């Protein structure tokens, strides 16, 4: 039972990180109708900026405080992601208004490949470390209930708590702020939102900036765990099955979908992997997403679209 709980907790923690990346997909799709294939590249780009700024700024400004370096690097990386959002709106989205969905999809693919390449050109292509002080020592829980206790990775625990707090903050932002209500209005109907004076261009910059912020937080957490490297963008793409499972238009769906994927892949790898030769964790999420596309294409919480002719 103790080992099962360890696996379950590990899956829930991974699921929260998947949900954090998936939020970027959901936010952009809700506000602009664009399925943003560049979200994984944004995670890599933001993590590269954070890692390199944390190295460069202390040398340039002449201080050796790790906390101050991380704080300045975070602010600098966030400024870079806001600039990226503004450039995407000005150079890409603003010029493709009212185009077909496939055109916008291909545009985000182009953005993804450009950011992958330009990020490594600008910041380098080595493996970089992000050290924001997350504890890496294991923690034993319930040692009086189960023999040996339940082993929990403290870094995963803190990362899941940060991801959960960010999810709650974003939900409150969309529900209770004027900007959040404007974003929801744009998500419901672009033309109606424009007719009451909501500027679409500004809204798109805001929502891409928010998606950039979630990408930065996810990049910091994943970079702290795995190191900042090219494969980080591939890890982030695990969020694709999450949004398919939860629904492209649902913030709660991204959270529930992330938890289901995280727990499912961990349990299947541990309990079915030995019977099937291992490697289930690599493809489990995508097979589940395919099954949902066949049975319930809109996902668990997505809006069902009915076309009347």
Helix-strand blueprint:
Layout: H1 2-32, H2 39-61, H3 66-91, H4 101-123, E1 138-141, E2 150-153, H5 154-176, H6 178-188, H7 190-195, H8 200-226, H9 232-236, H10 239-246, H11 251-271, H12 273-276, H13 280-295
Antiparallel strand pairs: 1-2
Helix pairs in contact: 1-5, 1-6, 1-8, 1-10, 1-11, 2-3, 2-4, 2-8, 3-8, 5-6, 5-8, 10-11, 10-13, 11-13
Can you tag this structure with a few keywords?
309 residues; mainly alpha; 2 strands; globular
How many domains is the backbone divided into?
1
User: Using DSSP, what is the number of strands?
Assistant: 2
Instruction: Kindly report the spatial arrangement of strands forming the biggest sheet.
Output: 1-2
Helix content: over 70%
Give, in order, the helices and strands: HHHHEEHHHHHHHHH
Strand content: under 5%
Q: Number of DSSP helices?
A: 13
What integer value in Å does the Rg equal? 20 Å
Major β-sheet, in short?
A: 2 strands, antiparallel
Architecture overview:
This protein is mainly alpha-helical. Helices cover 72% and strands 3% of the residues. A hairpin with an 8-residue loop joins strand 1 and strand 2. The relative contact order is 0.19. The mean pLDDT is 81.
Could you provide a short overview of the structure?
By secondary structure, the protein is mainly alpha-helical. It is built from 13 helices and 2 strands, in the order ααααββααααααααα. It has one domain.
